[in-house]
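Predict structure. Input: Helix-turn-helix domain-containing protein, 288 residues.
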Amino acid sequence: MDRVSELGEFLKAKRAAVSPQEVGLPAVGNPRRVRGLRREEVALLASVSVDHYTRLEQGRVATASENLLAGIAGALRLSREEHEYLRMLAQARPQRAGTVAPEIGGALRDLLGALQTPAIVLGPRTDILAWNAGAVALFMDFAEIPPAQRALVRLVFLEPRVRGLFVNWEQVAAEAVDRLRMAAARTPGDSRLTQLVGELSVHDADFRRWWAGHGVRSMAGGRKHLRHPVVGELELDWQVLQVLTAKDQTLVTYTAPEGSPSHEALRILGSWNAESRARRPGSIDADH
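Output follows.
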């Protein structure tokens, strides 16, 4: 993703989504030739010259002040995450992602193995770098997927065993696309991420539509509703923990409130998975 062109497309998409009436401006022109706000209207609301805003949208401004970006964020009614995304595109110099998957530290592997709840470690492109037995029981054995294809967002769209788990798949998938766009802003020029976006765009019309919407979202946690083939309905809370010793890695856990039907279902699922693995000839520990 080219940072300069993405900045322009993002600003155009966001001003198209805001009507003059929403921000207290008269709807001059009937019909209006542009959807949403005009550039001069954004400039007025942001207290900046039309020329300066136009140059920013066209990628002709090398850097932008915090005050300028705050004014634009207010004019376009951006969310906190959208404001941060705008800042990354227009002001910050994000680091480029490496081409080699980062190593998982021994202590983190020990933690994964000790957790009784499903957990995975993600890299900067939603690469699944490591997982525990609980994650295998809940989702699938990720070792069956070639490492180059082991991105969580890819599995949500293209792996039927993962895609079919989510009761509200459209919401889960759309939010995954928004998180991928945020990741792309942090790692400009990442060829592997570009290939991932290209593959998903070719194979899934929903991905193309959501990617074109320029939505952004951070990895913050939430609740997922799943329908598992072994234990049925599950409502799980997922949390994201930053690995401080490896800035490009996050630990994601899936839990259910103590005493809830989903908590009991997770316990049953863990027992079922342990028995299933024990029955397999030559079975080895599946944690990675």
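The longest helix spans residues 261-279.
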